[in-house]
Amino acid sequence: KQEVTQIPAALSVPEGENLVLNCSFTDSAIYNLQWFRQDPGKGLTSLLLIQSSQREQTSGRLNASLDKSSGRSTLYIAASQPGDSATYLCAVNTGTASKLTFGTGTRLQVTL
Amino acid sequence: KAGVTQTPRYLIKTRGQQVTLSCSPISGHRSVSWYQQTPGQGLQFLFEYFSETQRNKGNFPGRFSGRQFSNSRSEMNVSTLELGDSALYLCASSFVAGDTDTQYFGPGTRLTVL
């Protein structure tokens, strides 16, 4: 059974800092990994999708890496801003239809 | 292109009642998945529909059911509501080209069971 863990559970940083969020999964046989952000009480916004054959993906200030063999992914956020404050979730697709297994999330607060 | 829409956005029901939630996927997307999000259990997969067929089902009791129509719109139904069914219900759609596509989520339906 696939299990996904995210560390840390919560993080508070001052504006402008670079930061790294971690995601680990127990079954390395994945099709892809997706990072989402969720604002309080809202749905999920897709940030980045990494296919199993890829090592990283970049979008603006965000960079996600994937090390499938070790069961790890990181989300790097450069020059953090207060608007980045949200919960960040990673999810893996093990190829069973479109079923995603989610991590527990990292709640990020970026302070002025 | 319009995003995933879910109706209603908020619902209040009492124990024992039943409820139907609706999800309209992004135009052209054929897969619709449903998830339940609670503070204690996080996001859990309910089921996924593709071309009107349920392809996968999570570990939820039979009170949770769903269906998909020919236009890819999907509904999920929860019968005999329990207090523990209070949650944010999210649906996601994807185009599906080899199970590698990005999933796009709707804003969710917040269900409160009293």
Describe this structure in words.
The complex is a heterodimer of chains A (112) and B (114). Chain A has 112 residues and is an all-beta fold. Chain A has strands at residues 4-7, 10-14, 19-25, 32-38, 44-51, 56-59, 62-67, 72-77, 86-93, 100-102, 106-111. In chain A, strands 2, 4, 5, 9, 10 and 11 form a six-stranded mixed beta sheet that branches. A five-stranded antiparallel beta sheet of chain A has the order 1-3-8-7-6, with no helix packed on it. With 114 residues, chain B is mainly beta. Chain B has strands at 5-7, 10-13, 19-24, 31-38, 42-50, 53-57, 64-68, 74-78, 87-94, 104-105, 109-113. In chain B, strands 2, 4, 5, 6, 9, 10 and 11 form a seven-stranded mixed beta sheet that branches. Chain B has a four-stranded antiparallel beta sheet with strand order 1-3-8-7, with no helix packed on it. In chain B, strand 4 and strand 5 form a beta hairpin. Chain B is globular. The model of chain B has no long low-confidence stretch (mean pLDDT 93). Classes of the chains: A mainly beta (112), B mainly beta (114).
Strand content of chain A: over 45%
Contiguous uncertain segments of 5+ residues of chain A: none
Oligomer: heterodimer
Radius of gyration of chain A from the CA trace?
A: 13 Å
C-alpha end-to-end distance of chain A: 41 Å
Between the first and last Cα atoms of chain B, what is the distance in angstroms?
Answer: 37 Å
Task: List strands and helices in order, with pairings.
The complex is a heterodimer of chains A (112) and B (114).
Chain A: E1 4-7, E2 10-14, E3 19-25, E4 32-38, E5 44-51, E6 56-59, E7 62-67, E8 72-77, E9 86-93, E10 100-102, E11 106-111
Parallel strand pairs in A: 2-11
Antiparallel strand pairs in A: 1-3, 3-8, 4-5, 4-9, 6-7, 7-8, 9-10, 9-11
Chain B: E1 5-7, E2 10-13, E3 19-24, E4 31-38, E5 42-50, E6 53-57, E7 64-68, E8 74-78, E9 87-94, E10 104-105, E11 109-113
Parallel strand pairs in B: 2-11
Antiparallel strand pairs in B: 1-3, 3-8, 4-5, 4-9, 5-6, 7-8, 9-10, 9-11
